[in-house]
Amino acid sequence: MGTHIFSTVFPTNMAIKTERSSLIKKKEKKSGDDYCILEEAGDEEDDVCTAEDRLLEEGSREDYAPNGGWGWIVTLAAFVIWLLNGSCSAVFGVLFSGFLTDHGASSSTTAWIQNLTFVLSNFCSYLLDPLVGEFGWRPVGIAMGLMNGCGLALSAFATSPAYLFFSYTVVAGIPVDILLTLTFAIVPHYFTTKRTIANSLMTTGSSFSIIVMPMIVTYLLDQYGFRHATLTTAALYFNSCVAAMVFHPVEWHAKQRQHRRKVIEVTEKSTYSPLRKVAVSAINNLGHLKSGRVIVIGTVLGINVMGLFNFYYLVPFTMKAAGYTVEEVGMCLIVSGITVLITRFVQPLLIMWTGITHKTGLMVGSSIIATSITAFAWSETLAMKMTSMGTFGVGYGFFFTSYNLVMVEVLGLPMLQPMLSVTGLFKSTCFLTLGPMIGSVRDMSDSFPVCLTLLAIFEYVSVAIWLFLPAARRYDQRKAEQELQQ
């Protein structure tokens, strides 16, 4: 378990330093009692290649990753985790909206409960890379599943909105993004040519989640009331632990084990405690924030995730304020779930047939999301709201299918897990700063359409930020060249 995940990524005959992965040049990634040294390519310009080039060259990762086999079991397990946790914002709105309304909670209080949940969850997901490096994918997944289920079970005994800040925000909320980010990290490592398809199948879990989970929670509330409905939902969430049990290290299922990465064992046993090793690794990962590409990607993903989750939790409140029933709210959520599901299957085909990049897919998705949120906010009929939610689902599908693969596309596979961790800092910052702003605007304007329009503006801004990526890439290249000259 001590060997960092970087040591399971590439065969020993592969160079790591490329135009897209200069961030990890000359870097020793320590973890546990051993460490692996990332190899450098030559200084010649001809040695520079893209991440995709490396994956396609003879004797490369295609000979190492299963590209199927146990990878499909891992994909199915990741699907289950997304099925349970992929609609947590919608579940929160359905499960707790009545409780919060009955206790006189303001929109700002509700926004703080929800956004602080994601602040803590995304901030703690920064520890994913160090935790996995020390303990492995499987133990981390099981521990987070247990914590998530226990927190929701405690929420069943809430007596006030303040209680939910502990039971839901802290205990149940923190593991959510760690679990979802864990699936984004593990699935791409099991595949090469089938990576986009596997990633799409994994994230279809959120589509089914949007369709199924609100319906289940609504039924439980109608039949058993708030407390028993919450306890039953918590019991369902414990199944994340079962799913995480199949998260084996990739090398257990490698097609050609002789291509494993060289690992240099440290002769003296480290005296560091596991907690200190995790802390040291987390501090070292802050160095990635010096990269312009990391800043651009992290900012874009942070804004989008904040917007998506805030919109989903605001939908029930918005529609109830407009006089719609719980059943009509559920219908809108189901429509969005269906279009997300369809998009999950269509987008990989579009990428294969048209050759569009994952960056383009994200930009298209964000634009559709912003436009549909605006349309939903100001539409006055149920038909128009359902149409807007269906369009929103298309954008949602485009975004999350490419969420982690754009990191591989721009930075390379070795940077995937560190980038996923660092992105947690950007997401938590957006939830902490922009999320409560949405609730405050709602209270000041007394209008849900106004606060949703502000949310859409944030989404449009994220699209514009992508325009800075070429400049960020040039900055990173100049920085890498200067370091090589030194």
Overview of this structure, please?
With 486 residues, this protein is mainly alpha-helical. Helices cover 71% and strands 2% of the residues. A 3-stranded antiparallel beta sheet has the order 1-2-3. Helix 4 (107-124) packs parallel to helix 7, helix 5 (128-135) crosses helix 11 (274-285) and helix 9 (195-237) packs across helix 15. It is globular, with a radius of gyration of 22 Å. The protein starts with 27 loop residues before the first strand and ends with a helix.
Most strands sheet: 3 strands, antiparallel
Poorly predicted sequence stretches spanning 5 or more consecutive residues: 1-63, 258-269
- The N- and C-terminal alpha carbons lie at a distance of 35 Å
Q: What's the alpha carbon Rg, rounded to whole Å?
A: 22 Å
Label the overall shape. globular
Q: What structural category characterises the helix and strand content?
A: mainly alpha
Query: What assembly state would you assign to the polypeptide chains in this entry?
Result: single chain
> What's the β-strand tally?
3
The helicity comes to: over 70%
Major sheet: order of its strands?
Answer: 1-2-3
As a percent range, the share of strand residues is under 5%
